[in-house]
UniProtKB/TrEMBL annotation:
Pathway involvement of the protein, from the record: Cell wall biogenesis; peptidoglycan biosynthesis
Biological classification of the source: Bacteria, Pseudomonadati, Bacteroidota, Flavobacteriia, Flavobacteriales
Protein name listed in UniProt: Transglycosylase domain-containing protein
Compartment(s) where it occurs, according to its Swiss-Prot or TrEMBL record: Cell membrane
Reactions catalysed according to its record: [GlcNAc-(1->4)-Mur2Ac(oyl-L-Ala-gamma-D-Glu-L-Lys-D-Ala-D-Ala)](n)-di-trans,octa-cis-undecaprenyl diphosphate + beta-D-GlcNAc-(1->4)-Mur2Ac(oyl-L-Ala-gamma-D-Glu-L-Lys-D-Ala-D-Ala)-di-trans,octa-cis-undecaprenyl diphosphate = [GlcNAc-(1->4)-Mur2Ac(oyl-L-Ala-gamma-D-Glu-L-Lys-D-Ala-D-Ala)](n+1)-di-trans,octa-cis-undecaprenyl diphosphate + di-trans,octa-cis-undecaprenyl diphosphate + H(+); Preferential cleavage: (Ac)2-L-Lys-D-Ala-|-D-Ala. Also transpeptidation of peptidyl-alanyl moieties that are N-acyl substituents of D-alanine
Length: 763
C-alpha cells in the first residue's frame, strides 16, 4: 500500500515537472518570438521596409523604340510584375518549391512537422514566403546552430508579415525578382534575357522548368556549363514531373517536353559588351553629375546602380545596330588594306617620324597601360616594368574575325593595336536634336576611348561649309556666284599670320572661273582661302561658335582648310543647323528619366538658337548637295569605296561634305537628308600612324562608305521612315541656288589689300 502511494507520488512529481518544463519551454518560445519581433536579436524590417524592400534594382537604359539597350547595376536585377509572368512558370515554381503555397499563411505547419520528425532528411520546410524573407532581409546567415535557430524564428515572423502585407501573386513576383541565377542574372527577367534572350512572358514550359530547377542550386544546375548538361536536363525533367504530380501538366505533355534538348541563346550582359557601349559609358559619366543636381525628396542622391531608374534615351536601337554594322563592315575591309600597306615597312605603323618620336609614343602607351598601373602599385621599379614589356606572354587580342589567343610581348601588342583604324560616328535628327546612333570606336572592350564625345580631331574640308555660310550671310553671295581658282598668296601680317601663306589644291591644279557650288563640291582650297580673306577669320570663328562648336578654334586663316580639332558630336550638331532651316538644336540624348515607381523626375528641354536665316541655310544645303552630285562625295551616286565596290547607289538628294586632314591622318564625311544627319571620322589613334596615300586615306575612302552602308540599311527598314525627299525650299527664296548660268566672274588673282574689296564679288 505504501509502495503504491510512493509510485503515485513519483508519477505526480514527473507529471508536475513535465508540465513545468513544458510551460517554461512554451514561455521561452513565446519570449524568443517576442524578442525576435522586437529586434532584440537584430533589426527587423519595418512596415516601410516591407513596403519597399531594398532589392538593388538595376537602372535601365531604354531606346526611343522601347528596347533596353543596357543597364547600370551592382546586381543585374530588373523587376517584373506578376501579370508579366507566364502561368506555367508560376505553376512550375509552386509545384516544385511549395506545393501548399496557396493554403498556408507563410509557414507550412505540416511541412515543418514532417521536417522535425524526419530530422530534415527529406529537406527543409521553408515555404516560398520564408525563402523570400531570407533573400530579402537575411541571406544565408550563420552556420552556428543557435544563431540558425534565431534566424529561422526571424524568418517565420517576416514570412507572416509578408503574407499580411502582400497577395500571393505579389509574393511570387517578389520571389522571382530576388533569385540569383548566376552569370550576372539576378531575377527572372535578367535570367530570361541572358540565357534565352527573351522576356519572361515569352518563356516556354520547358524553359520555365529549367529556371525553376536552377533554384535548388544555381551554380550546380547552371545550363551554360556544358559538362553538366545531363545533370541540368535531369533536373529540368524533375520539375516537369512535379508539375504532373500537381496537375499543372499531363503525363503526355511531360513525356514530349522531356525529350527536348536544352537550347540557350546565351548573351551575358556587361558594361563592355552589347549595343551602344560607347554611348552607355558617355551616359554613365553624364549621370554621375546628374545625380548631384537631381536629389531625392529626402535630399539624398539617387544611386545609379541600385535605385532602378529608367533612362529613356533618344537612341534608336535599329539605327544603332545599323551604325555598328556599317562601321564593322567597312573598317574590316579598310583594316586589311592598312595592314597590307604597312607590311615590311620600317617603323610601321608610323610614317615620317624619328626614332625618338616613336619611342616617346611607345613610352606613353606603356605608362597608360593596365600592366604598368598594377606593377607600379606592387612596388616595381620603372626599369623592371619596362623590361616586362619585352617578355612574351599569353594573351587574347582583338581581330575582326573574333578574339584570338596568341603569344606575344606586351610591347608588340602595343604596336599591333597602334595599327588599328578607329572611328567615331553619330547620327541625329536635325529638327529635334535627338541622337539616334552613337559609335565611339570599333570595339569597346579593347578600345575604350570615345571618338564621338571625347576625341577632337582635325576636321579638314568638312569645316569649309562654315566659311561659305559666313560669306553668304555677310556678303550676300550665292552658290551660283563665280570666283577664279588660281594661285593665291596671303601676305605676312594679314589677319595676324607670321609668314606668307600660299595654299595649294589637293590635285595641284587650278580650274580658273568656277562657281562657289563647284568650288565646295571639289573642295578647292584656294577658293576657301580667298573667301576667308574677305570676311576675316574671326567672323568664321563666330559663325562656328553660333553653330554649337565649343572646341577651341584658332583665329587663323588656315581654319578655312580645316586646321582645327573638333569632335564628331559638335560637327554633326553644327551641320544639322543647315538642314533645320538655320535653327541650331543642341544634340541631346535623354527624353526623360523615371524613378523605379514610374514617376518622371527629369525631362530635359531642347536647347535651340536661330543662327542663320532660312535662305542662307538652304543655300548651304544646296552647296553641299553639289558635293554628292558631282564632287568628292559623288561615290554615293554610283557606289564604291575607293578600293572596294559597295552597292549603295542613292538617287535622292543628299547634302554632304568630305574632309581629309594633312598627311591623311583624319578622314571625314558628314551627310544629311531632311530628317537625319550623320557624321563619321576615321583615323588611327596616333596621328603619326596613317595611310601613305591620299587615295586610301581620304575621307571619301575611309569614312563616306560607312555613311552609305548605314543609310542603305536605314532605307531598307520601312519602320524608320528616313526621308528620300528634297530639302524644303523656303518660300520667296532670295538667294540663287539653281546654277544654270554663271553670274558675274569675280577676279581674285590680284594681290589682296588690307581691306576686303567688296566689288570683287560683283555686289
Amino acid at each position: 500500500m505504501a509502495s503504491n502511494k510512493a509510485n503515485t507520488n513519483d508519477f505526480s512529481e514527473y507529471k508536475r515537472k513535465f508540465w513545468q518544463l513544458f510551460a517554461y519551454g512554451f514561455l521561452g518560445v513565446i519570449l524568443l518570438f517576442l524578442f525576435a519581433s522586437w529586434g532584440f536579436f537584430g533589426k527587423m524590417p519595418s512596415f516601410d521596409d516591407l513596403e519597399n524592400p531594398d532589392s538593388n534594382v538595376a537602372t535601365e537604359i531604354i531606346s526611343s523604340d522601347g528596347v533596353v539597350i543596357g543597364k547600370f547595376f551592382k546586381e543585374n536585377r530588373t523587376p517584373v510584375k506578376y501579370e508579366e509572368l507566364p502561368q506555367h512558370l508560376v505553376k512550375a515554381l509552386v509545384a516544385t518549391e511549395d506545393e501548399r503555397f496557396y493554403e498556408h499563411p507563410g509557414i507550412d505547419a505540416k511541412g515543418t512537422l514532417r521536417a522535425v520528425v524526419r530530422l530534415g532528411r527529406d529537406g527543409g520546410a521553408s515555404t516560398l514566403t520564408q525563402q523570400l524573407a531570407k533573400n530579402l532581409f537575411h541571406g544565408e546567415g550563420s552556420k552556428f546552430i543557435l544563431f540558425r535557430v534565431i534566424q529561422k524564428v526571424k524568418e517565420w515572423i517576416i514570412a507572416i508579415r509578408l503574407e499580411r502585407q502582400y497577395t500571393k501573386q505579389e509574393i511570387i513576383a517578389l520571389y522571382l525578382n530576388q533569385v540569383d541565377f548566376v552569370n550576372g542574372a539576378v531575377g527572372i527577367r535578367s535570367a530570361a534575357k541572358i540565357y534565352m534572350n527573351k522576356e519572361p512572358k515569352d518563356l516556354t514550359i520547358e524553359e520555365s522548368a529549367l529556371f525553376v530547377g536552377m533554384l535548388k542550386n544555381p551554380s550546380l544546375y547552371n545550363p551554360n556549363r556544358k559538362k553538366r548538361a545531363k545533370l541540368v536536363l535531369d533536373r529540368r525533367n524533375t520539375v516537369l514531373g512535379q508539375m504532373v504530380k500537381n496537375g499543372a501538366l499531363s503525363e503526355a505533355q511531360k513525356e514530349e517536353l522531356s525529350k527536348l534538348p536544352i537550347k540557350l541563346d546565351f548573351r551575358p550582359e556587361s558594361h563592355s559588351e552589347g549595343s551602344a557601349t560607347y554611348f552607355r559609358e558617355y551616359l554613365r559619366d553624364y549621370m554621375k553629375k546628374w545625380v548631384k543636381d537631381h536629389l531625392k525628396p529626402d535630399g539624398t542622391e539617387y544611386d545609379l546602380y541600385r535605385d532602378g531608374l529608367k533612362i529613356y534615351t533618344t537612341i534608336d536601337s535599329k539605327m544603332q545596330q545599323y551604325a555598328e554594322e556599317a562601321v564593322y563592315e567597312h573598317l574590316k575591309n579598310v583594316q586589311k588594306e592598312f595592314f597590307k600597306g604597312m607590311k615590311d615597312k620600317e617603323n610601321a605603323p608610323f610614317v615620317d617620324i624619328t626614332p625618338e618620336q616613336t619611342q616617346q609614343i611607345m613610352n606613353q602607351a606603356m605608362k597608360n597601360s593596365e600592366r604598368w598601373r598594377k606593377m607600379d602599385l606592387n612596388g616595381k621599379t620603372e626599369d623592371e616594368i619596362i623590361k616586362s614589356f619585352s617578355v612574351p606572354a599569353k594573351m587574347k587580342i582583338f581581330t575582326y574575325d573574333g578574339e584570338k589567343d596568341t603569344i606575344m610581348t606586351p610591347k608588340d601588342s602595343i604596336i599591333y593595336y597602334k595599327h588599328f583604324l578607329q572611328t567615331g560616328m553619330m547620327a541625329m535628327e536635325p529638327r529635334t536634336g535627338h541622337i539616334k546612333a552613337w559609335v565611339g570606336g570599333v570595339n569597346y572592350k579593347y578600345f575604350q576611348y570615345d571618338h564621338v564625345g571625347q576625341g577632337a580631331r582635325q576636321v579638314g574640308s568638312t569645316f569649309k561649309p562654315f566659311v561659305y555660310a559666313t560669306v553668304m550671310e555677310q556678303l550676300q553671295m550665292s552658290p551660283c556666284d563665280s570666283i577664279i581658282d588660281s594661285y593665291f598668296t596671303m601676305p605676312k601680317g594679314k589677319w595676324g599670320i607670321d609668314a606668307d601663306w600660299s595654299p595649294k589644291n589637293s590635285d595641284g591644279n587650278y580650274r580658273g572661273t568656277i562657281t562657289l557650288q563647284k568650288a565646295l563640291a571639289n573642295s578647292v582650297n584656294t577658293v576657301s582661302a580667298k573667301l576667308i580673306d574677305k570676311v576675316g577669320p574671326q567672323a568664321v570663328v563666330d559663325m562656328a561658335k553660333e553653330l554649337g562648336i565649343t572646341s577651341k578654334i584658332p583665329v587663323q586663316p588656315s581654319i578655312a582648310l580645316g586646321a582645327v580639332d573638333i569632335t564628331v558630336e559638335e560637327m554633326v550638331g553644327a551641320m544639322s543647323t543647315f538642314a533645320n532651316q538655320g535653327v541650331y538644336v543642341k544634340p541631346n540624348f535623354i527624353i526623360k528619366i523615371e524613378d523605379k515607381n514610374g514617376v518622371v523626375i527629369d525631362q530635359p528641354m531642347p536647347v535651340t538658337k536661330d543662327v542663320v536665316n532660312k535662305d542662307v541655310a538652304y543655300a548651304v544645303v544646296k552647296l553641299m548637295e553639289g558635293v554628292t552630285q558631282s564632287g568628292t562625295g559623288a561615290r554615293l551616286k554610283w557606289g564604291g569605296g575607293g578600293f572596294i565596290q559597295y552597292d549603295y547607289s542613292f538617287g535622292n538628294p543628299i547634302a554632304g561634305k568630305t574632309g581629309t586632314s594633312q598627311n591623311n591622318s583624319d578622314g571625314w564625311f558628314i551627310g544629311m537628308v531632311p530628317n537625319l544627319a550623320a557624321g563619321i571620322w576615321v583615323g588611327n589613334e596616333d596621328r603619326a600612324a596613317h595611310f601613305r596615300s591620299t587615295h586610301m586615306g581620304q575621307g571619301a575612302t575611309t569614312a563616306l562608305p560607312i555613311w552609305g552602308i548605314f543609310m542603305k540599311k536605314c532605307y531598307a527598314d520601312s519602320d524608320l521612315d528616313v526621308s528620300k525627299e528634297a530639302f524644303e525650299r523656303p518660300e520667296d527664296l532670295q538667294i540663287k541656288v539653281d546654277c544654270w548660268t554663271p553670274k558675274k566672274v569675280v577676279d581674285t588673282t590680284a594681290v589682296p589689300t588690307d581691306e576686303p574689296n567688296m566689288d570683287e564679288f560683283g555686289l
